[in-house]
Amino acid sequence: MSSKYLLIAILSAVLMSCSKDPSPMIPHLSGYWEIDEVTMPNGQIKDYNYNATIDYIELTDSLSGFRKKLRPNFKGTYETSQSEEQLQIKIENDSLNIYYSTPFAQWKETVLKANETELLIINDRKVRYLYRQYEPLDLD
Predict the structure, then answer these.
(1) Residue 21 Cα distances to 27, 92, 129, angstroms
(2) How many other C-beta atoms are found inside a 10 Å radius of the C-beta of residue 130?
(3) Cα 112 to the center of its chain, rounded Å
(4) What are the residues facing 88 on neighbouring strands?
(5) PROSITE patterns annotated for this entry (predicted)?
(6) Is the pLDDT of residue 16 over 70?
(7) Contact 107/98 with Cβ under 8 angstroms?
(8) Domain chopping of the chain, boundaries
(9) Which CATH number fits domain 22-133: 1.10.1740.10, 2.40.128.280, 3.40.50.2000, 3.40.50.12230?
């Protein structure tokens, strides 16, 4: 009988260790991001070879901030509108969720991966957005 309890204890430990803490992804959210590809729920992938706009995400504290659309120009600066989406970061059920709000809408996205070079997000319609860290054009 004791081997049965030992087996249950080992399985419980393994299952608990499978839960991942998403908080290490939070510092990687801030920055300039451009869409690399979008994967639709049916598996269809749309590649983005060129982006007229990029997303700028800034966390003003550890769990809130904003996202803004920027248009890079050839001078190495950005054109932007004054509109921005306010955001709140929440860790819920081992997931890192971003809650956006504007005067017109509110929505949630879940961060699946975030590191120095990639950001993978899925929305409530199961559309996956793969972003890569934006690198300005070097015309020199």
Answers:
(1) 13, 10, 21
(2) 19
(3) 7
(4) 64, 99
(5) PROKAR_LIPOPROTEIN
(6) no
(7) no
(8) 22-133
(9) 2.40.128.280
